[in-house]
Amino acid sequence: MSAHPVEHGDEPVIERPDRTVSALRQALARVAPSKLPLMESERDEVLMLAAETQSVGPVNGFLLRWAMAVEIERHPATARRLREAEHLVRTASNEETMRAAAREAADIRAAARRAVGG
Fold it and tell me: Which of 46, 61, 91, 100 is most exposed, with the fewest beta carbons within 10 Å of its own?
């Protein structure tokens, strides 16, 4: 299994968006619309936390998390591999399979983080 977000035959279905709430929301609406309610709920919590703490740290973390999510989802085969790995982590009947799946999921997320400059 490859740890790179782009593998042969896994071309992005959209361009990489800017790391803004609006651009990430529009991109997510195209590649994973079912995740929009989660993004919006998290956005509201993060903005409240940022105001309470007078820190942009929570906002930066939010933008990075969703930029990574969009990076993965804009590559359909990579998104599929991540879902399969996450499923195996939850359902594997042996520890070796579970650990291999957890490594695969972590590798995919790390590659997405590098791709978006996080």
Answer: 91
